[in-house]
Structures are given as C-alpha cells and as structure tokens.
Amino acid sequence: MISKFKEIEELFKEINSSLIDKVRIFVIGGVVLLYQGLKPATKDIDLVVETKEEFISLKNALESIDFKEKIPSIKYKNMNLNQIFVRDDFRIDLFQKEVCGRFSISKGMMKRAINVINLKKIKLNFCSNEDIFLFKTMTEREGDLEDCISLAQKGIKWDKFLNELKSQIKKSKQDVWITWVGERLDLLEGKGLNIPIMKEINELREKYFEKYEKEIS
C-alpha cells in the first residue's frame, strides 16, 4: 500500500530517468484521492496514455526498472485492461486510451485534467473528480464505491459528469452502458449518497430498455 504522495513522486522520477521518449500520462484512480487527502492509502496506480507509442515507451521504461507484467485477474472482466505491472508495493494498471469496455479518455477529459508533475520526459496529469467518478462507476473493484462517495463529498459537478457520460455513450454507440452506470448509482444512493441527476439517468435507462424491447419484439 502507498500512503504518501512522496512515494509517487519518487517513482515517477525513477521512471522519467528510464524513458527514451516523452509521454503524457493521465491518472484516474486512488492516487488522486490520496493526493487530495480523500484516501489514507492506495494499492493501485491507474494510468492512461493516449497513444500506442506512449504505451510502449512507458511499458519499456517500467520493465527496465524491474517492474514485472502480471496477467489481469477476473475482477477486471468489465475493463479493457492493457497490462498490470508490479514491483514490491507498487502496482501500476496501464491503459492505452480505452479503459472500460468502449469507454476511453476523451479530449474533454484531457482538457479538464490538471498537471501535477512535470519532468523532462513525463507530464503527469490528474483527471478531474467528475471523470474519476465516472470511471469508477464502470468497475467492480473493491473500494470503488467508497471512493465514489469520497469524491462526491468533496464535490462533484454533476452536469459535467452527465455530459461526459452521454458523450461516451454516443461515441461508443454502446447504449447498454447506461444500465451499468445506473446500477452503480443505485447502489450509491442506497448507501445514502444524494445524486441530483438520477432523474436524467432513469430517463436514459428507460429509453434504452424501450429501444431494446422494440429490437427483440
């Protein structure tokens, strides 16, 4: 488990020294919550790069500093995971653009991200809380619901979350994802979280089921 952001900083300095090409990295998981004081520790470092070239460059750099590849476990069945790298207490989940099924890091997400670490070869950016919340509604990993609650308590701009969700569904042409996100939001409401966009979410779900019923009838 990683309990201090200083450990993250030192890790990326080490990775930076092993990189040949420049990479722009987006962080979407617990590291951001740790940085904001919303989480005491994290075991996963969730990273996304936009291009295949960046993915290969980062993969090679990690392997050069003794990170080992690990086959994804069954709990990642809803995620299009590119690779997991492990070394001691560090576990890096590295994605190339697409993270959850057909959901990917969008231009809007990249624009909303905040640059936190700027090194010679690495530009490390934290995705917004809204976008991290969205990604976490697409997984089944232990603790993701609790992370969503912490993010919401910090403050979520629900209109941005909803707009990005609609954009992702439209771009991927995977309307079914609204049912998955809706189920996770139902669970969060059951835990006492107030989600002011549930009316819109329910309307989107109803439209999906109406369309689905017409297609199979």
Describe this structure in words.
49% of the residues lie in helices and 18% in strands. The protein is of the alpha+beta class. Helix 5 (129-136) packs antiparallel against helix 6 and helix 8 (177-190) crosses helix 9. The chain is globular, with a radius of gyration of 18 Å. The N and C termini lie far apart (51 Å). The model has no long low-confidence stretch (mean pLDDT 92).
Offer a few descriptive terms.
alpha+beta, globular, 18% strand, 9 helices, two-stranded antiparallel sheet, single chain, 217 residues, Beta Polymerase, domain 2, seven-stranded mixed β-sheet, 9 strands
Domain count: 1
CATH topology name, in short, is Beta Polymerase, domain 2
**What would you call the shape?**
globular
Main sheet: strand order: 3-4-5-2-1-9-8
Short description:
α5 (129-136) packs across α7. The relative contact order is 0.13.
Write the SSE topology.
Blueprint: H1 5-18, E1 23-27, H2 30-35, E2 45-49, H3 52-64, E3 68-70, E4 83-87, E5 90-96, E6 98-100, E7 103-104, H4 107-112, E8 114-118, E9 122-126, H5 129-136, H6 144-154, H7 158-172, H8 177-190, H9 198-216
Parallel strand pairs: 1-9, 2-5
Antiparallel strand pairs: 1-2, 3-4, 4-5, 6-7, 8-9
Helix pairs in contact: 5-6, 5-7, 8-9
